[in-house]
Amino acid sequence: MRMMGIAALALAFMISAGTARADAPRRVVSMNLCTDQLVLMLADRERIASVSYLAARPEDSLMAGATNGLVLNHGQIEEVLPLKPELAIAGLYTTRFTAAILRDLGIPVLDLPPARTFDDVRANIRKVAEALGVPARGEDMITAMNARIDRLRGRVARAARPRALIYRAGGYTLGRQTFAGELLALAGYENAAADYGITEWGAVPVEAVLQLKPDALIVGIYRDNAPSLARDVTKHPALAVHAPRVIEVQTRHWSCGTPAALDIVARLIAARGQS
Amino acid sequence: MRPSREARAGRREPPFGLLLLGLAMAAVLAGTLGLVSERISATAVEGFLSLLDSDPETAWAILTRVRLPRVMLGAMVGASLGLSGAALQGWLRNPLAEPGLIGASGAAALGAVLAFYFGLADWVQFALPVGGVLGALAGLGLLLAMVGRDPSVLTVILAGVAVSAFSGALTQLAINLAPSPYSTLEVITWLMGSLANRSFDHVLLALPLTLVGWGLLAGTGRALDALTVGEDAARSMGVSLTLLRWRIVLGVGLSVGSAVSVTGVVGFVGLVIPHLLRPLVGYVPSRLLPVSALGGAAIVLLADVAVRYLSPGQELKLGVVTALVGAPFFLLLLMDVRRKTQ
């Protein structure tokens, strides 16, 4: 998995066309797992002052290998201020307190909304690339992502669309209007959560899964080794009754909208080919 | 000692056998409802009874693999709570004693959470109920140490509050330090108490220790009857109070501990059920035990049907519902106790 992160990084450097503008911020601090990964893909390494500690965790981040030697922050103002950031990037719903203080102190802060669609991903890439002073790199990244999306779409264009249900700890599922749902659709699956009336996020009891009879259960695994009571639900013996194909997926692949999430689409396409 | 026949004849109470039969039937009925009750929330999911026609295979799978373990677990947990409540109230001669209120449930939850997050439950599955039981026993031990030789109504409840608060704080500490942020949400939802999505694995996990606990509690009837006339009188009748204490502490610890470890905390059943049923058995503790076990099973099964009807889709947690009904009952009871002691 770490290899994949490194591959994504290498790809990011390959498409890193153009150098940063003269007025580009020199000390960039990112405080959110998702913005971290975009910053690591787009910014010149020497301009990154710090990313969040989550970015360095291989179980959370696809770019953990790229954080070696970087200062890691926990989104605390005490950690961020001494770095004298010229630009801070935060998630729209996280570290609000720190972001507000930085703004008060006159430090530019970019709030990035979470991406739910590939259009959101494109918009976020543009915003981050623009703020980092490397708009051309952003456009290159988007072009590469679009090309890959087209290739993946071509692979499933005429295939049948199996019904899949994303099933996570506690019996929760993700519907069409989520980034994971978007990835599922791109891989050529119908999202069975829609048949249960869920378009965004919600719980599906085991007995409803039996009735929905999905062809595949996509089990989101957060951390392989972390014990979790709710994992029991995804292992309920009754789920085997209709013998759906079980595809295990590390949730770090769909938790953030970045081009690297397309790796998961390739995996989901490969998994359906085995039937 | 049982009140004399004359004393009991004055009150209108149903024959004991009939009462047992009625409660057993209520439990079976509630269980049957739990097996077949409709729960329609969304487009492609049918209610169970219509599914029986359109897709009998799936209906059968749902019945045997999802609903049956759920109902069995509900009956087990309800019986454990009712029985424990009746035994504790008889032993402490305290109408407010209850596994939840005296802190045994909270301590059991702490034990189960610890067993889980130290990875013991991955290692040996049986660690979960054992953790719950050890937690409950530790909570009861702490309670007894605080109460000492003065089990007055208020001391027991106050000590119970202390045990609950302490085990609650430690549980929150465990959640705080949990290895995965998702576990925070997870433990909090689990602590609310629920029978949803349980399988036979859970039944088998909880059953052995629960049965031992029931056995211990069922044998306390005679001693509890003797205790109604006071400790000295009971002793003179040959009742060993030490033995009784061990039986009850172990029995409650085993049955409540293993119940909590698979369903989370379902509160107030042990308080309400013995209370409602006590007049019907002529205030005889030994008769209250089996009656409370059956009544507890019936009420938990009914509550579990209710959560499915009340809010399909976003299912209410069982423990939340029992607490919503039980807490006002507790307040009423408290006012009653205060009036009587004034």
TrEMBL record, chain A:
Transmembrane parts of this sequence: none
SUPFAM superfamilies to which the protein is assigned, alphabetical: Helical backbone' metal receptor
Signal peptide: 1-22
Keywords: Signal
Superkingdom of this protein's organism: Bacteria
Pfam families (UniProt xref): Peripla_BP_2
The keyword Signal belongs to this UniProt entry's keyword annotation: yes
Positions of the Fe/B12 periplasmic-binding domain: 27-275
Protein name: ABC transporter substrate-binding protein
Automatic annotation (TrEMBL), chain B:
Record's protein name: Iron ABC transporter permease
A single GO BP: siderophore-iron import into cell
Transmembrane segments: 71-88, 100-120, 126-146, 153-175, 204-224, 244-277, 289-310, 316-335
Record-linked PANTHER family: ABC TRANSPORTER PERMEASE PROTEIN MJ0876-RELATED, FERRIC ENTEROBACTIN TRANSPORT SYSTEM PERMEASE PROTEIN
Keyword Nucleotidyltransferase attached: no
Membrane topology classification: Multi-pass membrane protein
Record bears the keyword Flavoprotein: no
Domain of life: Bacteria
The organism's taxonomic lineage, starting at the top: Bacteria, Pseudomonadati, Pseudomonadota, Alphaproteobacteria, Rhodospirillales
Listed GO CC annotations: plasma membrane
Regions annotated as coiled coil: none
Keyword set, alphabetical order: Cell membrane, Membrane, Transmembrane, Transmembrane helix, Transport
